[in-house]
């Protein structure tokens, strides 16, 4: 006959919370609070319950816990690419931004759930929100989805977007002064006696539009007429930028400088120019935008417009956690800085 004091231990790895409660001689709710680190449970009892759980291989069912608490301890990071399906998460800008966001998120003991969104049929953002897989969302870029972001902003507060201010935007936005960045780049090139300045990139997403506007403002301030022939469209990938520069060189259009939408495009332009026998910066000066880590290691090192991605990521996560706590958080636009290296 079994002893009335004997507690049968289930097979390792199949232990349930009720089993721990029987072994510890407490209620299931006490076990739940102890495993969650609730300070209302005396430390000695908490330690005893945790030791029983660890000894017998008990693992918290995170899905059940999330359903019960309505909290996932996870932050979703979304990269919307409606404007550029070919751009990869391995793009150096995305790698750096995702890495900096992940550092800030994990510092708060939260997990990171990464989404790359290309299909943008109506309701794509609502479906992500309604999946309840994250406690808040961070978006890297607006792509062409300004209206989709606005449509959820009034009812879903824990969301912060990296991008550029748009008329009537109602979502919390963090970004850099893109227009001033474009103006600074052109002003620097003009100061280096460059007059035929190419703009390399698309003019479709908000940040791209504003950098192009800054480019045109810089030309206007210098008294240089805008020449549409010097606008060289390029998608946001290195390969497409190389092909765009090859076409520009083959066209015979004269230019002595390139201002690229991003460092990725600028580095592609630099390489293509050198392969064509052009000296950078003697024949053609090159300026990028972002100041990603690769910019200082090119040959020659890239002159660029620096936006502080480390600070930007920190601000995004700080604002998101404030919104998750129910506080208000205004949009923030940070200044940019010209970083002069050897390419211009």
Give the CATH class of the largest domain.
Alpha Beta
Strand order of the largest sheet: 2-1-3-4-5-11
The outline comes out as elongated
Helicity range: 40-55%
Class from secondary-structure proportions? alpha/beta
Provide structural commentary.
Helix 1 packs across helix 3, helix 8 packs parallel to helix 9 (206-221) and helix 10 (238-251) crosses helix 11 (263-275). This protein has 344 residues and is an alpha/beta fold. The strands form two sheets. It has a six-stranded parallel beta sheet, with helices on one face. A six-stranded mixed beta sheet has the order 7-6-8-9-10-12, with helices on both faces. It has three domains: 17-60, no CATH class; 74-176 and 309-334, Rossmann fold, CATH 3.40.50; 178-306, 3-Layer(aba) Sandwich (Rossmann fold). Strand 1 (74-80), helix 5 and strand 2 form a beta-alpha-beta unit. The protein has helices at 17-24, 28-35, 43-55, 62-69, 92-106, 124-130, 146-153, 178-191, 206-221, 238-251, 263-275, 309-324; strands at residues 74-80, 111-117, 136-140, 159-162, 172-176, 197-200, 231-232, 257-260, 285-290, 303-306, 332-334, 337-339. 41% of the residues lie in helices and 16% in strands.
Keywords, separated by commas or semicolons:
six-stranded mixed beta sheet; 12 strands; Rossmann fold; 344 residues; elongated; 12 helices; alpha/beta; six-stranded parallel beta sheet
Summarize the SSE layout with pairings.
Elements: H1 17-24, H2 28-35, H3 43-55, H4 62-69, E1 74-80, H5 92-106, E2 111-117, H6 124-130, E3 136-140, H7 146-153, E4 159-162, E5 172-176, H8 178-191, E6 197-200, H9 206-221, E7 231-232, H10 238-251, E8 257-260, H11 263-275, E9 285-290, E10 303-306, H12 309-324, E11 332-334, E12 337-339
Parallel strand pairs: 1-2, 1-3, 3-4, 4-5, 5-11, 6-7, 6-8, 8-9, 9-10
Antiparallel strand pairs: 10-12
Helix pairs in contact: 1-2, 1-3, 2-3, 5-12, 8-9, 10-11
């Amino acid at each position: 006959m079994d002893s009335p004091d004997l507690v049968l231990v289930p097979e390792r790895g199949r232990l349930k919370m009720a089993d721990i409660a029987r072994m510890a001689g407490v209620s299931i709710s006490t076990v739940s609070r102890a495993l969650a680190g609730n300070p209302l449970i005396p430390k000695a009892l908490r330690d005893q319950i945790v030791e029983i759980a660890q000894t017998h291989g008990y693992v918290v069912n995170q899905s059940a816990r999330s359903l019960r608490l309505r909290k996932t301890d996870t932050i979703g990071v979304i990269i919307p690419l409606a404007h550029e399906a070919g751009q990869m998460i391995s793009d150096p800008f995305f790698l750096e931004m995702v890495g900096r966001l992940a550092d800030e998120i994990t510092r708060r003991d939260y997990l990171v759930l990464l989404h790359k969104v290309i299909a943008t049929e109506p309701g794509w953002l609502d479906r992500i929100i309604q999946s309840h897989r994250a406690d808040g969302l961070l978006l890297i870029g607006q792509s062409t989805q300004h209206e989709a972001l606005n449509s959820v902003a009034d009812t879903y507060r824990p969301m912060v977007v990296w991008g550029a201010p748009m008329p009537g935007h109602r979502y919390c936005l963090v970004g850099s002064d893109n227009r001033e960045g474009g103006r600074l780049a052109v002003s620097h090139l003009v100061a280096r006696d460059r007059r035929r300045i190419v703009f390399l990139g698309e003019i479709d997403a908000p940040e791209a539009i504003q950098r192009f506007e800054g480019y045109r403002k810089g030309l206007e301030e210098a008294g240089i007429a805008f020449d549409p022939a010097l606008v060289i469209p390029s998608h946001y990938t290195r390969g497409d930028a190389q092909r765009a520069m090859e076409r520009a060189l083959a066209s015979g259009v004269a230019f002595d400088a390139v201002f690229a939408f991003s460092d990725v495009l600028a580095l592609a332009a630099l390489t293509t120019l050198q392969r064509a026998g052009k000296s950078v910066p003697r024949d053609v000066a090159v300026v990028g935008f972002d100041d990603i880590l690769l910019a200082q290691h090119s040959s020659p090192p890239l002159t660029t417009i620096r936006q502080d991605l480390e600070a930007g990521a920190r601000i995004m996560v700080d604002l998101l956690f404030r919104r998750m706590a129910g506080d208000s958080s205004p949009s923030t636009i940070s200044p940019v800085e010209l970083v002069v290296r050897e390419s211009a």
